[in-house]
Automatic annotation (TrEMBL):
PANTHER family: 5-HYDROXYISOURATE HYDROLASE, URICASE AND TRANSTHYRETIN-RELATED
Protein family according to the UniProt entry: Belongs to the transthyretin family. 5-hydroxyisourate hydrolase subfamily.
CDD domains membership: TLP_HIUase (cd05822)
Cited NCBIfam families: hdxy_isourate
Organism of origin: Umbelopsis ramanniana AG
Signal peptide per UniProt: 1-24
Swiss-Prot/TrEMBL GO biological process terms: purine nucleobase metabolic process
Pfam families with a match to the protein in the record: Transthyretin
Protein name as annotated: hydroxyisourate hydrolase
Enzyme class: hydrolase
């Protein structure tokens, strides 16, 4: 659900806040959830990167928050990857600002690197894959490219999302 206006309906938030309060949710949890809802209601062009990703921990079903992410583009002339941007996933495991919304993406080969070892070490777990690199071809710059990553300490999988 996306709106043209940058400000969501105030009454909508009052209703949601009332529901959370009736369920006994603490104020900090309600505020965090309302902020997540508000971000999803903002216009897409205000925050949507042409390439986004989402990290989910397959073994627990929770989002992989604060996972470092890097996106690079292959330079065809040198066969080297050039770093375009670095970021990290948010509390929902998403990286909506991997590239600036106004970034002019080009056709080409790209690589996204997820620092999985740092994430799992931060959780007190060993990890078999120190990082996951996903190389993909961006054929149509007019399309949005979403790269979900499902990880556990000893496995990972990915696919082209929407």
């Amino acid at each position: 659900m996306h709106r043209d206006s940058a400000k969501p309906f105030p009454s909508f938030f009052f209703i949601i806040f009332s529901i959370f309060r009736s369920l006994g949710w603490p104020s900090s949890l309600m505020q965090a959830r309302l902020e997540a809802i508000k971000n999803q209601l903002q216009p897409m062009s205000a925050h949507k990167s042409p390439v986004t990703c989402h990290v989910l921990i397959a073994s627990t079903g929770i989002p992989g928050k604060n996972v470092a992410v890097k996106i690079e583009q292959l330079d065809q002339a040198t066969a080297d990857f050039k770093v375009l941007s670095t970021s990290e996933t948010n509390d929902d495991g998403r990286c909506p600002t991997l590239l600036p919304a106004n970034h002019q993406i080009e056709k080409g080969i790209y690589r996204v690197t997820f620092e999985t070892k740092k994430y799992f070490e931060g959780q007190g777990q060993a990890c078999f894959y120190p990082y996951v690199q996903i190389v993909f071809e961006l054929a149509n710059p007019e399309q949005h490219y979403h790269i979900p990553l499902l990880i556990s300490p000893y496995s990972y999988t990915t696919y082209r999302g929407s």
